[in-house]
Design goal:
Helix 3 (54-63) crosses helix 4 and helix 4 crosses helix 5. This protein has a single domain, classed as Putative xylanase like domain (Putative xylanase fold, Orthogonal Bundle), CATH 1.10.3670. It is α+β, with helices and mostly antiparallel strands. 36% of the residues lie in helices and 19% in strands.
Length: 291
């Protein structure tokens, strides 16, 4: 655990002690009053996007988070898994999840916080049900497959000319010390079982050297996952595709390097060339965003 992770845990512990952070056992939700207030402000501001196309809605919601600080492991709160709502700090995955949850609200003309939390749980957890730490979709290839089964997205990588890759997916199981919740033998054994199931399926990715020639087929609002050569991992980063005035495809994402949600300065194809372990991308297109 690094200093940042420790500070996050200490921060949440203080809020819990002072009664400024609520954990509702029945609903398994962790949310501060500040985040609840931010939700109200954001949903009111986003109301104007309802008449937009789905892709434009996703981009509008994503851009509403521009400048939000990048913070790791905001979901690792307390001793048991809860649905964490945190708009003050996002990592690459929670950024995408929050964008989809708000986009679902706009598409389905929802306004209530309870609608948002239901949407977030649907997106974040296997089959849409929070049933402990192992039910969270930790690996993004499984995140894509499971949300495709829910009818929320469609993996279009193969249509773009992607190639299949078969590799062991076991990073969490082989790096147990990096994940506080895996101190529990029950959680650890469950995650090892999840990894074995994930590893049974190949995943498709569009090779890095083919992205520029195919970027015109990728739409603004598509979800992009960065496939990796790192042993035991499928994906290292994710974000949202956005076409810019330069005529090129860029990445709207929570950037760990620059410490906030931003649009990549370089086009996606050029941005990826600076990531040594990157082998290409997986592309998932949001569909109905309803369930």
């Amino acid at each position: 655990m690094n200093i940042l992770d420790l500070n996050i845990k200490v921060y949440f512990s203080i809020l819990l002690t002072l009664g400024m952070l609520s954990i509702t056992s029945a609903q398994q939700i962790t949310c501060s009053p500040e985040d609840k207030s931010l939700f109200e402000t954001k949903i009111n501001d986003l109301e104007q996007t309802k008449a937009m196309s789905l892709g434009d809605t996703i981009i509008s919601v994503g851009q509403s988070f521009l400048g939000t600080p990048y913070v790791e492991k905001t979901l690792e709160v307390g001793d048991t898994e809860t649905l964490v709502v945190n708009f003050g700090g996002l990592d690459c995955t929670t950024f995408v999840e929050n964008v989809l949850a708000f986009s679902m609200m706009l598409q389905n003309q929802q306004k209530d916080f309870e609608n948002f939390t239901e949407n977030l749980e649907t997106v974040r957890y296997r089959n849409g049900n929070l049933e402990g730490y192992p039910s969270r979709l930790h690996y993004f290839t499984e995140w894509i497959r499971n949300n495709e089964k829910k009818g929320l997205i469609e993996d279009i990588t193969a249509e773009l000319g992607g190639v299949e890759l078969e590799k062991p997916i076991n990073f969490m199981g082989t790096h147990r010390n990096l994940y506080p919740f895996l101190a529990s033998d029950e959680n650890f054994e469950a995650m090892v079982s999840v990894e074995k199931e994930i590893a049974k399926e190949k995943f498709c990715y569009l090779p890095q050297d083919e992205i520029e020639s195919k970027e015109h087929l990728i739409k603004s609002g598509d979800i992009l996952a960065l496939a990796t050569s790192i042993k035991g991992l499928d994906v290292t980063h994710t974000g949202i595709a956005i076409h810019q005035p330069d005529g090129r495809l860029h990445l709207l994402h929570a950037s760990s390097k620059n410490g906030e949600v931003e649009i990549s300065e370089l086009p996606l194809a050029d941005y990826l060339k600076n990531i040594k372990s990157n082998i290409g991308i997986i592309v998932a297109r949001p569909t109905l965003l309803s369930f």
